[in-house]
Amino acid sequence: MTRLLDSPERFGALPRVGADLIDAIERSGLVGRGGAGFPVATKWRAVAERSGGRAVIVVNGAEGEPRSQKDRLLMTARPHLVLDGAHIAARVLRARRVILYIGERHEKARQSMLRALSERTEPERNLVALAAAPARYVAGAETAAIHFLNEGIATPTTTPPLPFEQGVDRAPTLVQNVETLAHIALIARGGSANSTLITLAGGVARPGVVEVELGTTIGEAVRQGGGVAEQPRAVLVGGYFGSWMEPTEAWKLPLDHRLRLGCGVIGLLPSSSCPVCETAGIMRYLATESSAQCGPCFFGLRALADACTRIADGSSDGHDLARLHRWVDEVPGRGACRHPDGAVLFLSSALRVFAREFANHNGAHDFRRTA
Amino acid sequence: MSAPHRLVVDRIKCDGRGLCAELLPELIRLDDWGYPIVNSDSVPNHLLPLAQRAVEDCPVLAIALRRSQLKK
Predict the structure, then answer these.
(1) Which residues in chain B have their CB less than 8 angstroms from residue A158's CB?
(2) CB–CB of B10 and A158 under 8 A?
(3) How many CA atoms lie within 13 Å of A301's alpha carbon, on the beta-carbon side?
(4) Interface list for chain A against chain B, based on CB atoms closer than 8 Å
(5) Is residue A251 located within the same domain as residue A333?
């Protein structure tokens, strides 16, 4: 079994691929590794049907999730694997352009991708252009990437049209995360897609990226990161759009992208940290990262962050917890993109797992985002 | 038979003017910030004229009646 990070640095010529690769992708069960977990074969078919030789492939290496590092690590360590996946997509979907959309702060990743690109054949090089994704949380969202490439504004747009209908230059467009494309490169060579890149963050002995087999438990993944640095109070599964879990529950959970693994960040909150303060800090970040286009997101997330902050710093009037519970029911599903939904999913898990801490938070913690 | 009518809000266009909720409180209420929370069920026939009016009177044309299943 070849995995991503211990595959050869370069396989050589691209394998022969045709439309039947989409069936192989479907059989592999591959879902997008950028966070949304959408089935890849479904997305490819939608673009293939409409392409007519015009399709555009956007290689999504924006990686705006603050704690995630796996995409830039992959672009740095195995750039040819990502390019292989992109070119395979371009052939199968008969695309006319490939755009590398790489986070503007991911300098090493960009250099590495460019160096790899310079080593490719001329026809392959000529297909590819480079774009720098703004360092904002929403910039990696599919419609935000397309909006940026078309008009220079990295904010999500109202759907429909969806990217496969009308994307870059109004052409059918595939926006696909770099790790997903790397898995495609292995599938096209007869491999499977049964590993996943996980970023371990917070109270783990060796924070960073590990590659594990799907189905590996979180406890085992943490052991591969050297184990816990400090007894955790909770585990954040899936990054800022993910969910807090009790450590005992998280430990035995098998890593599986059908279970809301998001972008694959596993964050351990040390017992010495205050969960309410941590939650308030992340909610503040997510409120700030709203693209301020939709009222329920812009005002709603700000109100949620304010209420969390008041509970954390001891200035609440006593009704904030009730407000939070009401708002988490009202805000989701009411934005053009899923930013408010992700933020509320995160907060709902905090209210559930940290119910005791939210109800009994005394005193004024001077809090900062720690993990 | 054609799909039932549903109210759909363009969240980017919506400015929170609130006219829709005044015209059609049976299906639309406002959140704490003045933005509509729309009942996602199909619009019953007897409310269709009012729903139509909410659509037409929206100052920023942010609300529409669609004959389609809701995406989830």
Answers:
(1) 10-13
(2) yes
(3) 31
(4) 157-158, 293-297, 299-300, 303, 327, 330-331, 334-336
(5) no
A251 and A296 in a single domain? The answer is no
Domain endpoint, select from A135, A161, A187:
A187
Tokens linked to A161: 């049209």
- Residues A45-56 pLDDT 10s: 999 999 999 999
CA distance, residue B19 to nearest chain A CA (Å): 15
Domain match, A169 and A211 both? no
List pLDDT tens digits, range A71-83: 999 999 999 999 9
C-alpha span between A148 and A113 (Å, rounded): 20
- CATH top-level class for B6-66? alpha beta
The torsion of the CA quartet B53, B58, B62, B65, rounded to 10 degrees, works out to 0
Q: What residues of chain A lie within 8 A of the CB of B14, using their CB? A: 294-295
Domain membership of residue A224 as a residue range: 195-270
- Residue showing tokens 């693209």: A291
Same domain, yes or no: A42 and A158: yes
Asked whether residue A371 is domain-assigned, the answer is no
What is the number of structural domains in chain A?
3
C-alpha R_g of chain A: 21
Residues in B whose CB is inside 8 Å of some CB of A read 9-16, 31-35, 37
pTM of the entire structure? Answer: 0.90
